[in-house]
């Protein structure tokens, strides 16, 4: 697996943003979920074809946090990311978001519909329907279809060194705390009213057995994005991009460069 470059970006007033960057070619931005950012096999495969930018959410990896940046609501977060894209020289982008990052990606694509060319939402948060029961997920096991699989075990592995282990758990707690500022008590901050503004070519990717955000929400998104593609993957939960890596990667590349690939090959 490639080692991405950790790039520090002065964002404003001495505050710092940090971004993992790897690969060459057309830029693709990946926004991570509430559990934090980890350079995984999905991002590594993308970086073989594209230049991947994966920013840490404010407050993580020693970046300036929401309080320091005076990010008081979701709108402030959206503007923060636009500022970061400007500083990175990313005028028009392809955007991928997972879970909480999917919520942010949808907000970004809806707010400035001209800035995002292609949009991939993986098990995205951001909508709420009282008629769709949310499961009581057990973390981290329920993030995966088979928690005993080599993929899940590798993803859930913690450092053996006591100091590194402590930092690992503290980083996870901080990541959840920062995300919960914008997810709690429910993730619906009005996104449904804005989804119609999205003009990007959009694909929704979901694990059929998602125990965190049920697959029914994939269809909630599709109701508001009738021109979007939907790919639902068997034997996967909240991380289909890891549990069904070849198929999700093919779906991703089909969206980003349709002229190079055949139709999306997945069950829906």
UniProtKB/TrEMBL annotation:
InterPro entries: AB_hydrolase_1, AB_hydrolase_fold, AB_hydrolase_sf. Pfam families: Abhydrolase_6 (PF12697). It comes from Paenibacillus validus. This is Alpha/beta fold hydrolase. Residues 28-244 form the AB hydrolase-1 domain. The keyword Transmembrane helix does not apply. Keywords: Hydrolase. GO terms for molecular function: hydrolase activity. GO terms for cellular component: membrane. PANTHER family: AB HYDROLASE SUPERFAMILY PROTEIN YCLE (PTHR43798:SF31), MONOACYLGLYCEROL LIPASE (PTHR43798).
């Amino acid at each position: 697996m490639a080692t991405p470059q950790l790039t520090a970006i002065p964002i404003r007033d001495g505050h710092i943003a940090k971004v993992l960057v790897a690969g060459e070619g057309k830029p693709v931005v990946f926004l991570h979920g509430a559990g934090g950012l980890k350079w995984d096999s999905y991002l590594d495969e993308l970086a073989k074809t594209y230049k991947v930018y994966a920013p840490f959410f404010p407050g993580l990896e020693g970046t300036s946090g929401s309080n320091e940046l005076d990010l008081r609501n979701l709108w402030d977060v959206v503007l923060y990311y636009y500022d970061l894209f400007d500083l990175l020289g990313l005028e028009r982008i392809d955007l991928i978001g997972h879970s909480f990052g999917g919520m942010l990606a949808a907000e970004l694509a809806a707010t400035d519909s001209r800035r995002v060319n292609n949009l991939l939402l993986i098990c995205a948060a951001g909508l709420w329907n009282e008629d769709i029961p949310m499961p009581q997920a057990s973390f981290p096991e329920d993030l995966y279809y088979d928690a005993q699989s080599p993929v899940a075990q590798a993803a859930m592995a913690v450092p053996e060194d006591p100091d590194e282990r402590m930092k690992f758990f503290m980083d996870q707690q901080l990541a959840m705390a920062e995300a919960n500022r914008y997810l709690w008590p429910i993730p619906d901050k009005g996104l449904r009213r804005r989804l119609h503004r999205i003009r990007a070519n959009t694909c929704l990717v979901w694990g059929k057995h998602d125990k965190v955000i049920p697959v029914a929400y994939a269809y909630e998104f599709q109701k508001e994005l009738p021109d979007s593609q939907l790919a639902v993957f068997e034997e996967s939960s909240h991380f289909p991009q890891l549990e069904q890596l070849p198929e999700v990667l093919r779906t991703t590349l089909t969206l980003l460069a349709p002229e190079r690939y055949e139709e999306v090959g997945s069950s829906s």
